[in-house]
Amino acid sequence: MKLVSREADRLVFKLSKREHEALMTTLRLAPLFPRGESPISRDSTKLGEQVPSAQADLDEALADHRLEQTEAITRLLTDPKRCTKMGAGAWKLTLTVSDADRLLQVLNEIRVGAWEKLGRPDFEEGSRPEVTEENFLCFWAFQLTDVFEGQLLAALDGEEPESESEGGTEDDSDSESDSGSGPKPDPDAGK
Fold first, then answer.
1. Whole-model pTM?
2. Given CB 3.0 to 4.6 Å as the disulfide criterion, which of 13, 40, 83, 91 pairs with 20?
């Protein structure tokens, strides 16, 4: 996913076929990584008996908000005016700055949910659970969201667009989809 153009409130990205499929798959996996409870207060003893009810209301509201955000991004990514297939499998994704921010939020929710499901390892301290059949999708989502978030953050921070002649994403052949290559999550992401 490469930023190819920027205007005042518009970012245009180019995604390979593989990147587009990975992004759409990641969004479809969002329900597998629900966020844990967000405590209503650090010291709920001061709030009394209303805490369980208020906590349940907060958790429900946050879950509804996450679902709405994910559905909005999915609609955007399936809107032919905003996400257009180009050439031999590449995609052009046009986002407003607020769309990019929303996509960043959705990806981060998935990333944090996957991290929580992994047991909240402290990657910076070297804690790294073994990859197993049971947690593979958590690692995959965690690392892949990191790749997409990095591209979005760089674009939002003012990174210069990459010219088409600089390479960008591989999109002019279908060899990428057949070779098993594609977005490569950083093995050190989150450390």
1. 0.75
2. 91
